[in-house]
Amino acid sequence: MSKETNLVSRREFLKDAGLVVGGATVGSAALLSACKNNGKSGSVTKYVCPLDSKEFDSLQALKDHYASAHEGVALPDFKTLNINGVDYSLIINDYWSLAWVLRETLGLYGTKVGCDMGQCGACTVIVDDKPMYACLLFACEMEGKKIRTVEGLADYGNKLNKVQQAFHDANATQCGFCTSGFLMAAQALIERNSSPSEDEVRHALSGHLCMCQNFKKTIEAVVAAGGK
Amino acid sequence: MALPEMKVMGLGTPGNDKIRSFFMDDLLTGKPRFVGDRHFAGQLYAVAKHATVDHANITKIDASEALKVPGVVKVLTYDTNPEWARTAPILYKTVPFYGAPIALIIATDWYIAQRAVNLVKVDYEVLPAVIKTTDVMADDEAMTRDTSAPLSGRFADSNFQSSGVTNRGDVDAALKSAAYTRTISDMPWTTRYQHQPLEQYEALAYWSGDEVYVYIASQNIHGHHRSLHNWTGIPLNKLHVYSPGCGGGLGTRLNNPEALMAVFASKEVDGRPVLYKCTKKHSMLFGGRQFDARSVITIGCDKDGKLVALDVKYVCNGYGAGITPIFSKTLTIPNMRYEGTRLYLNDQDRCAWRCVNDPPTGYHFTHALDLVAEDLNMRPDEIRLKNIMGEHDVDQDSGLPFGTKEVNACLDKVLQESGFASKWHKPGTKKLADGRLHGIGVHCHHDSHGRIAGSDRATIVLMLQDGTAAVLDGGSAPHNQMTEQAIVAAEVLGLKIDDVKTPVYGNSDATLNGGMHGGSSFTGSTGGATMKAAEQCRKQVFEAACKNATFSAVNAKPEDLDSKDSVIFLKRDPSVKATFAAICSSALNPIGGIGHGWNNVDADGTGGLQRPKDGFEVGHNTEMGSACADVCEVAVDPETGEVEILEHWNAVGTGRVIYTDGVLQQMGSGTELQVNMALYYGDIKDIPTGNIIGTQYTESQMITTLDCNPSRYHLYPIEGDNHTGPLGAHGIGEPCVGGYCCILSAIYNAIGKWVDTDHGACNPDRVLKALGKA
Ligand code: FES
Ligand code: FES
Question: What angle do CA B343, B344, B346 make, to 5 degrees?
């Protein structure tokens, strides 16, 4: 049977780790082994080829593989992304979206991809305090920015923050696929306007689609989160 | 009707409204992993190339350029495995519709695969295409078949898929003698409903030896297990199917070809895990719903508006859906003839359609009925109230009693709450202070949802040693229905809701068949299975309790015991008690139960009426369905054609409410869907020309929060006892959707013209056209 990445372990690891190197594509093996090794340090034991997912024990081995297997294609540079307050050093192909890297490289699957073309809002993350569609952002251009995902809202899911609690109280999810995007937009709104009116909420969430049509409860939740 | 006392269920039960979806907090923290959130070592990605013609033979596919792209592993076509391609809708050799998948590109990442798609070259031999229903009608007015019409290619000799006929009384004689008759054939083409999930259509599969593991978004995990087996011949015990969740779109997750794509692709790359993803553009094309529906309706009635005859011809391109005329079970019509025909067109496949064709037929009939009322100088509510079927009426065709029927109560409620009679006016005669036109419309129906069917369904309930219960209901996705099942188990066992869990779902290996996972049938049918399984557990727990010192000291028998709030107690002396945890942890044998689903009439005679009704005895077969009524008030700007919903009242016959907040969610969703269907959904395809005009969300104009004003919706669950099911409950979510015609009726009342929706939504351009301004 194929071995599936253990998300919980990986998240636990990411929460504590300061640095991840070479975790390209789902360098899940790399990240997991690091997790199992010590759970705290940022060292890794595997380097993953961003083109074909092959794993190597050293950066040099990965470079050698690149030179022979992908002749004429340059190995991308390392980029440092700050996600949920933690710096990650990653190999990022220049055509990868931020949503792809969050999900496939770092295992932060709470960020969903509904359309992959900037129309549905499911992939929304907060970048420097603004809600943005992660599917439209190139990950390689995100250096120096502070990126927040749904996992970072409150202790990697170990508790609910004020906005999440308001969604809970209003029963504001159905299938939940759109929920992370709505939550991030709502969080950004509450941070800049602590007590938004219903109309302000409706405007702030208007870049998001919910195909279960759960707007009524979502709007009510965000209004309640602000207390107006 | 007095409902039996319930501890957990029922709208008025204290605390029920505090119950939240069991999966809520996981969803709020980003924990659940849908199909696309799964990742296995060495995983590859597959993207399909889709046909760009309506109907054609493929003469050549050249993938040589695509294969040169670094990261592209393989390109598959029909010829890679003709055997599978012949038996299942994977990759087509003859293109039956625009967007049909014709090649599969497998690569190391999703972006590489997408780029390579454009490098695959295809040569077509284009064939004649049938893209609208009128292509196969010799006489559109009379709706008669043209035997020389071009063929869609689905079958060698016919465009006709199926037809349905209802016949009661003597329609011709009744029409002849009726004081009033009118035939309406020039009604607007219907709007469509786009049942498009937010999650992309995708599936992941890998092989390990001859065993196959598949992850799909399914609402019928055991159905998929069997259909994959039927398609591929892989033995059931070597086929493992998992559904970790469904990102919306129930109704489209029944017959998903993407599972087969992933299985097929993985086999061709030596079993490596392959995630097949359909791009959103092609999800829209492939999974979209756009119905081309035509009706000719003749209504006969007496001079007071009492209906005496109805003659309906209906033609549509709906696949896989029944043709159930909703008015048949809504109004008393002694003579009725209904002929419904479904056609194969060169149009994307559809699986079962939410509301089973009811919306177009409902819209056409609502339109016709409003015109008749106008002719007779009646209000739309008056003609409905004069003809609405009552709670105690039997089905006009079968003579069977209804398990439940609240359509009259729903209609009364929305009419009363909205003040319809005082607000209605002659069409096109009322202006608001700001110059906009005011309108109000009504609709009611008793439709085919809410049925209870499926004795092949089964649920397992296990008692754990800590006194909690685990419900394994065979469901496919963590939706509200599983929370309902937990509530049913809590009710039967006398456990607190927090002491019931639903730990396993969407797993063909670890659950019994829970049947199709949709509210309408899951609630009553699988709910019956959960009830029976929980009853078995309760019996075993009480037997174990009698061996426990607490109860053996008082010589208690199982029938002497009762339970509530997770405590078992002696009925005659409730101070003699023990917790479930104390009993279960000391029980000598494992405690568990298996229940089978509740059918209308089960082989063991336990189905049918569970409570006597109107002289029909327990066990008698019944008619089932769900009732809904809506009133909508609009303002129409005559300068811009913009329509604003001022207020919307929605009432649904719920049977007994199991999960209060889930019911309100579904009603709210149904009401929002009405707005979407009536005013917003754009077209994917322009039916008259066959041109693809909008395959993106933004082009398809989905509603957003800007279009929904929660304080303007008024939702009324009308609780009643469903005599058919063991729980007195049934599914309620979808009946609301068909009520969208009340919005279109309200627009008619505002502007005095029926807007030609031109098989799309009633958008500002079309409103202006109706007003003669475009
Ligand atoms: S996935 Fe980014 S907007 Fe839809
Ligand atoms: S809750 Fe399902 S898409 Fe929004």
Answer: 135
Identify the three-state secondary structure at position B158.
Answer: coil
Segment of A213-217, B97-101, B433-437, B704-708 carrying the highest mean pLDDT: B433-437
Centre a 10 Å sphere on the Cβ of residue A191 and count the other Cβ atoms it contains: 13
Query: Is residue B671 within a helix (H) or strand (E), and if so which, with residue range?
Result: helix B660-675
The complex's ipTM? 0.93
Q: Whose CA is nearest to atom 4 of ligand 2?
A: A210
Atom of ligand 2 nearest to the CA of A212: 2
Has domain A10-152 been given CATH number 3.10.20.30?
yes
Distance CA B693, CA B688 (A): 12
> Tokens standing for B277?
């993803």
pTM: 0.91
| Measured distance CA(B403)–CA(B730) in Å, rounded | 10
In CATH terms, are A10-152 and A162-226 the same topology?
no
Q: Which domains does chain B have, with CATH numbers?
A: 16-32+453-596 (3.30.365.10), 35-128+202-277 (3.90.1170.50), 293-451+620-770 (3.30.365.10)
**Residues from chain A contacting residue B42 (CB–CB below 8 Å):** 2, 53
- For A:71-110, CB contacts with B below 8 A are 73, 93, 95-96, 100, 103-104, 107-110
Instruction: Pick the more confident residue, B527 or A223.
Output: A223
> Would you list the domain boundaries of chain A?
10-152, 162-226
Higher-confidence residue: B236 or B196? Answer: B236
| Contact between chains at A110 and B196 (C-beta distance less than 8 A) | no
DSSP state, residue A148: E
Share of chain B above pLDDT 90, in %: 52
Instruction: With beta carbons less than 8 A apart as the criterion, state whether B110 and B117 touch.
Output: no
Q: Identify each DSSP E strand in B637-712 by its residue range.
A: 643-655, 685-686, 691-692
CA atoms within 13 A of residue B428's CA, in its CB half-sphere: 11
Contacts of B37 in chain A (CB under 8 A): 103, 109, 112
**pLDDT level of residue B177 (50, 70, 90 thresholds):** very high
Closest chain B C-alpha to A111 CA, distance in angstroms: 7
Provide the mean pLDDT of chain A: 80
Q: How far is CA B226 from CA A10, B82, B204, B223, B627, in A?
A: 35, 21, 17, 5, 33
CATH code that applies to domain A162-226: 1.10.150.120
- Output phi, psi for B593, to 5 deg: -140, 150
